[in-house]
Design brief:
Layout lengths: L6 H25 L16 E2 L11 E5 L2 E6 L7 E7 L11 E5 L2 E2 L2 E2 L8 E10 L9 E10 L8 E6 L3 E7 L5 E8 L6 E8 L8 E6 L2 E2 L9 E2 L7 E10 L7 E11 L2 H4 L4
Antiparallel strand pairs: 1-18, 2-5, 3-4, 4-18, 5-17, 6-7, 8-13, 8-18, 9-10, 9-17, 10-11, 11-12, 13-14, 14-15, 14-16
Length: 273
């Protein structure tokens, strides 16, 4: 006659099963921020991270037309030393649009620029704005993936505040047709976490874009988390943070920037990780 399993054996099975379940749950929570992220991803040191102790020297350059880029304590008292980008909003001349922006990433080996077909980069940061004047029918660019070199014309990607109280991620294709990939309400005086993933390519069938907002993967135009896009324009692209706006918008503006980083995966650059 078969003996029934003892209570001790049953507890052993339950314990092993419980450990396996806990292990699986932890891996999912830490290593799979969305369905489009590769399984088994691990956090690594970013390729670049801005150091507030170095001031603006972490960036390839700054553009203050007019304005200033300084390092201050987080005015919200949450995230420590942060970059403050402020403009008076007064044009320096007729043709020049008002802007105060960082440009690119300075590393020990030289500027980090995105130029190689097939490369994948993730760009993470926190932003807070206020005041930030807007006007219906006009725009304020808060982040952009900007093209440089031969044939440069307009940014492939830009995060824009609109006069209708929203902020959106806009894609501009090689024919200069624009598509709104994502949008949400524009909240001032509060931190927003962003991660943008890009695969570098001049071919929209090969390149792509992904977006996380406040730690959550976002659905882009077409309803998927990954949008096919030509992300490489001219000779190279790099990104810029700050305030850059159309001429119809007037008044002072301030943008704060915290934890900007560039890496090879979401986990490398997600703010707060």
């Amino acid at each position: 006659m078969k003996r029934r399993p003892t209570l001790r054996i049953r507890w052993g099975v339950a314990l092993v099963t419980g450990i396996a379940l806990v292990g699986t749950w932890t891996a999912v929570a830490e290593e799979a921020p969305s369905a489009t992220e590769p399984a088994g991803a691990h956090r690594a040191a970013p390729l670049w991270r801005a150091d507030p102790a170095k001031g603006s020297a972490s960036f390839e350059g700054v553009e203050t037309k007019p304005g200033s880029v300084t390092v201050v304590d987080d005015p919200a008292g949450q995230h420590g030393r942060s970059f403050e980008l402020h403009t008076s909003g007064d044009k320096i001349d007729g043709p020049t649009r008002v802007r105060v922006e960082t440009r690119g990433h300075r590393t020990a080996g030289g500027p980090l620029r995105f130029s190689k077909e097939g490369d994948v980069f993730y760009i993470g940061w926190r932003s807070m704005w206020g005041p930030l004047p807007t006007k219906k029918g006009d725009w304020v660019v808060l982040w952009q993936l900007k093209d440089y070199g031969s044939g440069a014309s307009t940014p492939p990607l830009s995060l824009r505040a609109r006069g209708d109280g929203t902020v959106d991620l806009e894609y501009c294709d090689p024919e200069l047709k624009t598509t709104q990939l994502w949008h949400t309400g524009l909240s001032l005086k509060t931190w927003h976490d962003f991660v943008i993933g890009i695969k570098i390519s001049k071919n929209p069938a090969d390149g792509w874009v992904k977006l996380w907002h406040n730690g959550t993967a976002q659905k882009l135009a077409g309803g998927t988390e990954q949008y096919g896009a030509a992300t490489l324009r001219a000779d190279w692209v790099t990104d810029k943070w700050g305030v850059y706006r159309s001429d119809g918008v007037k008044g002072q503006a301030t943008a704060w920037l915290n934890s900007p980083a560039v890496g090879r995966s979401y986990l490398d650059v997600a703010p707060g990780r």
